[in-house]
Fold this sequence. Notes:
Bound molecules: adenosine monophosphate
Helix content: 40-55%
Strand content: 15-25%
CATH superfamily of the largest domain: P-loop containing nucleotide triphosphate hydrolases
Amino acid sequence: MKFDELGLDPKLLAGVASLGFESPTPIQEEALPYALAGRDVVGCAQTGTGKTAAFVLPALNRMPADHVLRTLVVTPTRELAQQIEVFGTAMGKHTGHRVLSAVGGVGLEPQIKALKSGVDLLVATPGRLLDLLKRGDLRLDRVEIFVLDEADRMLDMGFWPDVRRIFAALPKKRQTMLFSATMAPEVMRIVATSLNDPVRVEVSPPSVPIELIHQALYPVDASQKVELMVALMKAHGDFDRTLVFCRTKMRSDAVAMGLERAGIPTLTMHSDRTMEQRMKALQRFREGKVRVLVATDVMSRGIDVEDITHVVNYDVPSNPEDYVHRIGRTARAGAKGTAFTFVDIREFPELDAIEMLIDTEIPVEELEGFAYRERAVPRAGRLAARKKRKAFGGRVMGRRRR
Ligand code: AMP
């Protein structure tokens, strides 16, 4: 499916094209027709699925660019608010809508001034929104579209009372879209009481049968990770499209620099880059002009590239689910994929958690001829040993009275 089959305004189509989006993601494909028709929508989707466009595009499509606050988006964190603002602003360049974010931690005055000069779509975090309302600097009586983003995280972060207050402050006649990765009972209750006959759309993160992925563990001292990466790429000629995961932005820059220095052209993908820069980088990677892309977990969610041959966990992820998401980027559509994990002794606890989660002991491999410095190698049979310990621990805990 293409964007132009969805009945979007040509200006928005131009906006979407300017970001290099070629076709709608599954959540966009499912939600857009209903959202454009003005229906209430409950979207069960995580960040990274393209949900931002799934609510920003219909809002801008349906509302005139007259700088009256007709669309309100509430999201739990500053970062998310700013990401939505960036996307909205990119679209607004084409449609004439003004998009503003109002978040805590930055000065109130500039936000008030911007609001006074007229805004079509406001993205806010709950606390700042309520502040602005209380001070009388913001009125919601012309709001026609309300989006509650990441409802489950709002709940986790203790924003639920604020969320209720915001719902109470909104005009009754409106379109509501609610997005949440999980449907906790409180979220379901709000859906039942505050949405009008909503359509439910759902996408699950793409899952790849883990058996199709060749997984291997490379024990290595932290100081030798770049060296090993370079040596592996030289030893195997088949790293055609390689995604390298690092824990932080700084580390991804350091790896990219190390690879470049060894003569391996490398791209990095992180939030410091503008959307345009990221899209350009992705395009070059997709076209195979550059074979290595280094990313953090957060950024990787937006990387929609087929035919990834290798995933390299340069750092072991601290969240075990991230391991599954990372390696699931390879072996798409039945193709074979390889996932290498570099592990330093300090990362053994994270490795434990991953192996428990996937219930598999990732086999240890080593690169022949590589001058390994001293390093710790996880013992074979470790998973079974850990399970036994855990079972024993569980029984002891079970006997205790609370
Ligand atoms: P989101 O889930 O809204 O945070 O989006 C995740 C990432 O996917 C962002 O970096 C978007 O720019 C990107 N994205 C969203 N929709 C598309 C699309 N249709 N094609 C390509 N990339 C997209």
